[in-house]
Every structure is written in C-alpha cells, then in structure tokens.
Amino acid sequence: MTHQPQQLPADHPPVNSGNIAVLLVNLGTPDAPDTKSVKRYLAEFLSDRRVVEIPPIAWQPILRGIILNTRPKKSAHAYSQVWTEDGSPLAAITRAQAEKLQPMLGAPETGGVKVDWAMRYGNPSIQSRIEALMADGCERILLAPLYPQYSGATTATVVDKAAETLGKMRWQASLRTLPPYHDDPAYIGALASDLGAQLDALDFTPEVLLLSFHGMPQRTLELGDPYHCHCRKTARLLEDRLARPDLRILITFQSRFGPAKWLEPATDTTIGLEADAGTKRMAVATPGFSADCLETLEEIAIQGREQFLDAGGEHFATLACLNDRPEGMAMLETIVRRELSGWI
Ligand SMILES: C=CC1=C(C)c2cc3[nH]c(cc4nc(cc5[nH]c(cc1n2)c(C)c5CCC(=O)O)C(CCC(=O)O)=C4C)c(C)c3C=C
Ligand SMILES: [Fe+2]
Ligand SMILES: [Fe+2]
C-alpha cells in the first residue's frame, strides 16, 4: 500500500468537530508491579484468543495451572525494575502522548477533537473510555491502535474490543480505525531522524544496529498474518533513510513466549552470536514499540546489555522509542489528521 501525503496543512484551524474523539490505544500493563496485579493482567492478556491461538479447553488448564502460578512473580520483579513515579512506563507514556496530541488537534471546548487513551488489557479499559467519550457527547471515534505493524494479536484485538463494547449499545458511536503505518513516510521519517540523532549523541560508534521487533509465533506468518512482512518493510525503509553505509543493520525478533517456534532471528540469540564473533560496540533500536515499556526497558536495556557485556562486548546502547518526544508527536499528528480528514 502506498501513502499519499494528505495531511491538513500545519496552519489548518482546529478541526471543527465538537463531537469527534481520538482514542489512542496501546497493549496494556498491570496496575502495580506486584505479583497479584501482574497475575490479573496476564490472566486477561493471555486468555485473549487472538494472542494465544490454542483452543481454550487445552490452553486454560496450562494458563491457570502453570503459567499464572509461576510467571507473575518473575514478571513483577521485572516490572519493579522499570516502574516510575508515574506508574508503568507504557501507561505513563501513552497518557503523555494523548495529553500532548490534544492541543495539537485543538481544544474540544472550541470545536477541536477530544483526545483520550486506553489500554487493551488492564486500565483504563477500552470499554470505560468509549463509554466516557460517548457520555461526553462524542458521536464519532477514531480508534488508533498504536502499533505501526499490523498483527491479529495487537491491532485486530483492539478493534474486536471496541466492537464488543459498541455491540452492547442500541445507539452506537461511529467508528473509524487507524490503519497500520509501518511504511508511512511520516513514521519512517520520524524514526530515521530521531534514531539518527540518538546514534550521533552516543559516546561510541556502534559497529552494528539491531532493529528489534516484538516476536510472534512463526505459525501466524504461515496463517497469513502480515506482521512479519510489515516489520521487514519498516526495517528496509528505515535502513534506506538512515543511509549509514558503515553501520551494519540487522532485523531481529524479541520476547519469545512459550515453547512454539517464533519468528527468527531472535534478538537474544543474535546478541550472543555477535559478541562471540567479536563485535564490541552494539546499539539496539525497537521501532515497533510506540512507547518504551517492559520489553524495551528491561528485556533490552537491562537483560540485553548484561548478556552482551558478559559475552565480551564493550559498549551497548538501547535507543529510546519515539514516545512523546517532538518527532513522535508530529508523526502521530500527521497520521491521525489524515484519518480525521475523512470526517471534517
Ligand atoms: C509491539 C507489538 C507486540 C506484539 C506483536 C506482541 C505479541 C505477543 N506478546 C505476547 C506475550 C507477552 N507480551 C508481553 C508484554 C508486551 N508485549 C508488547 C507488545 C507486543 N506483543 C508490549 C508493548 C508489552 C509490554 C507491556 C508493558 O506492561 O510494558 C507480556 C507481559 C510481560 C511478561 O510477562 O513477559 C507477555 C506475556 C504474546 C504471546 C504475543 C503474540 C502472540
Ligand atoms: Fe507482547
Ligand atoms: Fe519480555
């Protein structure tokens, strides 16, 4: 799919809506970094049939009998290492993105679009925010799953949840959904300039840059999920735009879960192989995550670093996600305005 730049000009007046809302949605996170909260969150997340595609009759006993009795304690420890005074980084950054996007789209009181945020699992839930927006008079909602690369386990399940909420209503709001933006020039451009600036600010020159995307079971690719292809296309376009011929750029997949075969090459395996082959200076970017979270701040920045340095590496840097920094916000404004232009 090609994208024509169609965004409204930067000096466009606040969109005259009154009744339009944008709901930013990301994956979700526990309410607190303790075993009980993580257990509640993982029970909801891992019971989603879009996420674990094993029939419930076979999966639920494994989930309830084994996983929810072991993983929450380990994961709670990992969360406690990245928790901030504003709570989970993923929720805090998604909230900041919504708060910064609001004035960019105009104040709702003066006819601008209302911006809100939700989490697919945990709080604030999609249902609670859709209900609140509608109670506030919003009749049209642009649902924006903040996943650049589409997958059934992320983008589709956000849309399912919103549809489930509307499914209980007699008088529904109208819904649009933000398409995946893995190859959008606004996204690739924002990443290239932001990552380029982060690379230039390092106190060492990396030999290799890993573009580490969240993994998925290999079977989802075979069943037709475009996620793997979207990640590869992002990586190819980003490599072109970064234009750093002296930097070796590799695509990898992180966060393997369970015994099934996942997309390869795995990030941790690649870190080990690179160190064994004598690479001393490595940087890792995570372009598939719109916000820093457990998977970037703990798995890469803590575990990945330790693995690389223990195996003989000398310099390791984790580059930040776009988060709520100016490049990321300008990108979000562009892709959201383009969708809103169908309504205004
Ligand atoms: C960015 C896209 C993501 C895809 C694709 C994805 C697939 C996927 N994830 C799991 C299992 C877990 N993921 C966990 C955390 C997590 N996953 C994503 C994003 C994607 N997941 C994010 C942003 C986060 C971080 C959440 C946070 O609170 O910071 C976890 C929980 C943590 C843990 O216990 O390790 C699990 C479990 C599967 C099975 C899957 C694909 C089918
Ligand atoms: Fe995940
Ligand atoms: Fe992880």
TrEMBL record:
Enzyme class: lyase
Biological processes, Gene Ontology terms: heme biosynthetic process
Catalytic activity: Fe-coproporphyrin III + 2 H(+) = coproporphyrin III + Fe(2+); heme b + 2 H(+) = protoporphyrin IX + Fe(2+)
EC number(s) on file: 4.98.1.1
Top-level taxon: Bacteria
Keyword terms: Cytoplasm, Heme biosynthesis, Iron, Lyase, Metal-binding, Porphyrin biosynthesis
PROSITE patterns in alphabetical order: FERROCHELATASE (PS00534)
Annotated InterPro entries: Ferrochelatase, Ferrochelatase_AS, Ferrochelatase_C, Ferrochelatase_N
PANTHER family: FERROCHELATASE, FERROCHELATASE, MITOCHONDRIAL
Stated family: Belongs to the ferrochelatase family.
Name by which UniProt lists this protein: Ferrochelatase
Lineage: Bacteria, Pseudomonadati, Pseudomonadota, Alphaproteobacteria, Sphingomonadales
